[in-house]
Amino acid sequence: MCLIGLLGDVSVTSRRRTTIQNRIKCCLFDHSRRKQQDSRCFHHSSHQVSFKSDTMFSSSFLRLILLLCLLSSSFSSTASSSNSTAADQTLRPQEELQKLKLIRQELDKINKPAVKTIQSPDGDVIACVSTHQQPAFDHPLLQGQRPMDPPEIPEGYSKDDESYEEDSQLWSLSGESCPEGTIPIRRTTEQDMLRASSVSGFGRKIRRVRRDSTNNGHEHAVGYVTGRQYYGAKASINVWSPRVTSQYEFSLSQIWVIAGSFTHDLNTIEAGWQISPELYGDTYPRFFTYWTSDAYRTTGCYNLLCSGFVQTNRRIAIGAAISPRSSYKGGQFDISLLIWKDPKHGHWWLQFGSGALVGYWPEFLFTHLKQHGSMVQFGGEIVNNRPGGSHTTTQMGSGHFAGEGFGKASYFRNLQIVDWDNTLIPVSNLKILADHPNCYDIRGGTNRVWGNYFYYGGPGKNPRCP
């Protein structure tokens, strides 16, 4: 178990040498004290480790640590034979070594060689990766190819209502940028993967089976349209930092373009902002994407954590923290997102802010979305794990109910869809739905400035939501 904490894409600084020596001592403690020392053996403190994606421990140092920990396991089992069975069940060194091997293999696939790395103020490392070496091109149908040229923007698109620019991510505030011919990718660390429930499940959503799903603890407050063919969607999404009270819960606000059935062959394209401590290790709102073609079973992933989405922009990092954010009774900030199907090649493109093309989902990833969407959703989603047997206090949106209005409640504005002839038109016949309106609610409206809009969100647990 000590090995998992000691091996990683980290640099050994002078400050860490003392920490590592202490952790080696921890491995050598006698078995009777090992149980009390587990947390010191197994976990890093975030301020003690500086992740630098392209530096590794020397091989001789790794072998030393491996030898010490294996000797420790052997010593413990012989010195405490009466507890050997329990020790084997607790330590399982072969299983841990296998898990470490799987994590290493996955990190090698995700973290491509960097031309340049940039340290973000929030602790992220942003790697500038050659465009043609990004994870998307691991896909058999994309190998050897290069990104497509930009498509035709939908007719009716206007920058007039955009209030957020592409330099609205924390990593870009350093003044550093990725060179031409590269894209910025947030480095995935060993610690990111260790937080996941499994290596195979890293970067994937828990499967849901209905639009208004209440199973698996997913709760929604959304506006949606059905009944026609949809070739894209656009909205400006208010950005907040809602409280997420458990590592295994999240809070997000996004656009969904949907086709297929919710039971087994659901196709979705998703983009927005999310707070996910399990995925990112912190509570910053982050720009994200997602896709699936089989109802979240085996296909798709967040961001660039699998081959799929092809990024073309060198200034926007998918998965990076967004800044600034809205504040209660203070400044309000939103991001504008546009998803649409290129009428010439059929790929689904994503635009962030005022004209910044992020990239595209190739049409061959999908079955139903090869043609068009049958539903579009806008809104919020949280996971409720019912800590202590009661509803979670994880917030949605601003953490305040829709009735509080501008400056207090979170909003979506200028809701539009892309029609069959690649034209942006206002949403009509918008339906609204809140799974648990006493916990999170939604209220819609229309005006001349915001077009179709709605306020949504809530605090979670409260006297009306026990």
Automatic annotation (TrEMBL):
Disordered: region residues: 139-160
Coiled-coil blocks: none
InterPro entries from the UniProt entry: Glutamic_endopeptidase, Neprosin, Neprosin_propep
Name of the protein in question: Neprosin activation peptide
Top-rank taxon: Eukaryota
Transmembrane segments: none
Stretches assigned to the Neprosin PEP catalytic domain: 212-466
Annotated organism of origin: Arabidopsis thaliana x Arabidopsis arenosa
PANTHER family the UniProt entry points to: PROTEIN, PUTATIVE (DUF239)-RELATED, PROTEIN, PUTATIVE (DUF239)-RELATED-RELATED
